[in-house]
Design a protein that fits this description.
With about 575 residues, the chain is of the alpha/beta class. It is about 55% helix and about 10% strand. The chain starts with a helix and ends in a 14-residue tail after the last helix.
Length: about 575
């Protein structure tokens, strides 16, 4: 009965017909309105902001180049600008065999602490310790301090044995460990300054585990600090021992050569300030104490200390003629982690120090303007932002919108001048400029993610992954070193002595860089659309840039270190 009633009711309800043509027309109208009032204005605003930041970067590059070439033409050298004269003594070797020849001359030398922070540096620990112990300086006026945070007990033992070996030769070397890795490198350096023997030291020379200073390093740098009491830091230049190993290391050399030859040089000449590179430098201990010591609030403890020291009124000097050998990461994974730290840390530090810089009373308005605008905003934020947003997003996307026209000077002329300015750092690699620019655009994907992470203080903001140093890892290892990796177990004679190897399962997203593959595919699609419909002439750039993303995405860049085939 009830079923029949409901059936009658439903029968009386008229059938609803959907006019799909009208729905489609409404959706098309809504899409057109969104395109006209949201999408196009948004992309146009993005292009305008990108063009503005591109001009900022251009002016900064031109200014830096003008300063450096003017200084070179005028014969400017740090030794002329600041007081510098050698520290005289009859002999100055760290080894105990030379100590007898010092006579009373060693008293003229200040006591220097040489710090070498380490973390599982099996491939390079001997090189750095040996180079530090070979520094020319009176043996009773230098302390070599190895700060070992290694978690691998085998590496820890090897480092300690190496320190004991040099100690037996008369070198004043200290092997220091701590119970945890709190604060990572900053924590280790801070802990190293707490030892009693450090109280007699005036200066600290710092070297990462893969850095090998020349024997006269201290003789050429410490006099700046001795004769100029207002100088807090002497920074030297990096020289790369493996720059020709692969295309990845060559690209890094091009970027870092520009950084040292131009950015550091110009900062030293004009402002007596630049970012400390974390190694291959000599600090005045009293300046470190005046700035509040090492802090681990960011992953760029070196830059943090440099900015705080500059705000106290101290001066820095860059000595490009002194070069320290070091190793570049040759695997893309290691380089990517390094760039994340170098991009995230400065952005995070900018956020945390903005108010402190604005409220500072010890430095001039122009010094604060240089710190906030040139050093942080243009150098650490705008450069990463505009590279990806403009060259890898706005330009490709503009092919879908004929209403958006990017001026030729913004697409061709300004980027070309910026590229040529940066290429001045490595004239011998000029033939690689186009490939270098394409690779830098690919890396901007990671740098902008890292910068945003730092500004928002979220996600991987405090992630610290030690840059992998391979040393001779790509060469065939002696058989005994290979056997050391095999776990020895007590078994019966019928049991195999070597555990059965298991094939490691590698997931697809671990094997390839999916984000690069996705972006590269999208850019190539934009290139095809430009060829078939838009005809804006961007397709050549879009194809080669998209291909560059795919090359990196499929790991056809850098070297491949030996990987274990079993767990």
């Amino acid at each position: 009965m009830a079923a029949g009633v409901w059936a009658g009711v439903w029968a009386e309800v008229p059938a609803v017909r959907v006019d799909w043509a009208a729905v489609a027309a409404q959706c098309a109208w809504a899409g057109a309105q969104a395109r006209a009032f949201l999408v196009v204005p948004g992309i146009r605003l993005l292009v305008l902001l990108s063009l503005a930041m591109t001009v900022m970067i251009l002016l900064e590059k031109l200014f830096v180049a003008a300063v450096c070439y003017a200084a070179k033409a005028l014969g400017h050298r740090p030794e002329r600008r600041y007081q510098w004269r050698p520290i005289a003594a009859s002999a100055c070797k760290t080894g105990g065999d030379e100590e007898a020849g010092l006579g009373g001359g060693s008293a003229a030398f200040p006591v220097v602490l040489v710090q070498i922070p380490m973390y599982n540096e099996r491939e390079v620990y001997k090189l750095s310790i040996g180079a530090a112990c070979a520094l020319e300086w009176p043996a009773d006026r230098v302390v070599i301090q190895v700060l070992d945070d290694s978690t691998d007990p085998v590496v820890k033992d090897l480092v300690e044995i190496e320190c004991q070996r040099w100690k037996g030769k008369g070198v004043n070397i200290k092997y220091e460990v701590r119970g945890n890795r709190k604060g990572y490198k900053a924590g280790a350096l801070k802990e190293g300054l707490k030892h009693d023997y450090v109280h007699d030291c005036e200066f600290i020379a710092m070297f990462d585990a893969d850095f090998q200073p020349e024997s006269d390093f201290l003789l050429r740098t410490v006099p700046f600090l001795v004769h100029n009491p207002d100088i807090a830091l002497v920074q030297t230049r990096w020289k790369f021992v493996n720059s020709d190993e692969c295309l990845l290391t060559r690209f890094q050399e091009m970027s870092l050569d520009y950084h040292f030859k131009f950015e550091q040089e110009a900062g030293s000449i004009v402002y007596s300030f630049f970012g400390f590179n974390g190694t291959a430098g000599v600090w005045r201990i009293s300046a470190i104490d005046d700035a509040g010591g090492w802090k681990d609030r960011t992953t760029v403890e070196d830059m943090d200390l440099a900015v705080r020291t500059a705000l106290k009124g101290w001066k820095f000097v860059y000595v490009g003629a002194v070069k320290v050998r070091s190793e570049l990461p040759s695997t893309f994974k290691a380089y990517r982690f390094q760039q994340h730290r170098w991009s995230c840390g400065p952005a995070n530090l900018f956020k945390k120090m903005l108010i402190e810089i604005l409220e500072n009373k010890k430095v001039s308005f122009w010094s604060k303007l240089h710190l906030l605008y040139d050093f942080f905003f243009v150098g650490k934020i705008a450069a990463h932002t505009v590279t990806f947003i403009y060259y890898c997003f706005a330009i490709p996307l503009s092919v879908f919108f004929p209403e958006i026209q990017i001026p030729l000077w913004g697409v061709v002329y300004v980027p070309t001048v910026i590229t040529l300015c940066k290429a001045l750092g490595s004239p011998s690699s000029f033939h690689l400029v186009i490939l270098w620019v394409l690779f830098e655009n690919v890396m901007s994907l990671h740098r902008i993610k890292a910068a945003v992470t730092g500004l928002l203080d979220a996600g991987r903001v405090n992630e610290w992954v030690v840059t992998e140093k391979l040393g001779d890892a790509n060469k065939t290892k002696p058989a005994m070193e290979v056997l050391d990796a095999v776990k020895v177990i007590d078994v019966e004679l019928t049991t195999p002595l070597v555990p059965k190897l298991k094939k490691r399962r590698i997931r697809l997203w671990d094997k390839y860089n999916c984000s690069e593959i996705f972006v590269g595919t999208c850019i190539i699609i934009c290139g095809f659309y430009d060829v078939l419909y838009a005809n804006k002439g961007y397709y050549i750039y879009l194809f080669i840039q998209g291909l560059a993303f795919l090359v990196v995405g499929f790991e056809y860049i850098g070297t491949r270190p030996p990987t274990p085939s079993a767990e």
